[in-house]
Amino acid sequence: MGLHSGAPVHMKILPGAPGSGIVFRRVDLDGFEIPAIGRNVARVSYATSLMKKGVLISTTEHLLSALVGTGIDNAVIELDNLEVPILDGSALPFVEAIRKAGIRKQRRARTYMRICRELELREKDKFIAVYPSDTYSVSYTINFPHPMIGKETFRVDLSDGNYLREIASARTFGSREDERAMRDMGLIRGASLENCVVLSKNGIENPPVRFPDEFVRHKVLDLIGDLALAGKQILGSVVADRAGHAMHTALVSRLLRDNTLWEETTLDEESRPTPAAMETAASQTV
Length: 286
Ligand SMILES: [Zn+2]
Known about the structure:
Shape: globular
Number of strands: 16
Order of helices and strands: EEEEEEHEHEEEEEHEHEHEHEH
Strand content: 25-35%
Structural class: alpha/beta
Largest sheet: 7 strands, mixed
Bound molecules: zinc ion
Helix content: 10-25%
Radius of gyration: 18 Å
């Protein structure tokens, strides 16, 4: 079920050709395809959506995050409705399904977007930036006025298998107080106690949390998913403070518009970051 639409949906992840990137395909609309790339970003408020010629793919961030976290560069995502399923509200079900299906290494060398110059965006008290680095890391700070959250910062380097352990299972969250207003905006029609952490006035309606700081970890998960719209794995250090989907995707747009900020590069095998899923799979077969 889609989180915002409440629409039932079936999704299938298929192999993609080398260099084809992540492409969504609406099987209910004659197989209409929308590449997961910044120029197709549509509405961005509580979720990231893609649109091309009036065709929508909604709430792409958790799935795209799982694909980055498992090191998938090329895939076709078939959907028979307009929204990616929310499942348990995290990226874990996607990661588990991908690992079960298996990952094939392709011959063509992966191209990275290596950040050469810093880029900082500010909007009132919101901030997002990316700085040059040899690996891909994300640092996120939130400041949420709730007794269970408050100010939290989480930093993760994605090059050494941390995604699966630290990020993938962090679930989306929302507060009972905001529910009415969001439903009035036509949002969260598919939300339930099974697919998000629900904050009551002073606590959590559906404990336990998966991490004490699950909230900020989920923001990291969202950010990774939104930055996937750059279309390449990033080599850079991303810092965000109270940003949201709109700022995440604004950073992507700026990067795509200004190619003096980055260079396309390949890495030799030894210095290549190991995606979480492969590392775990390898240790399991041993
Ligand atoms: Zn999310």
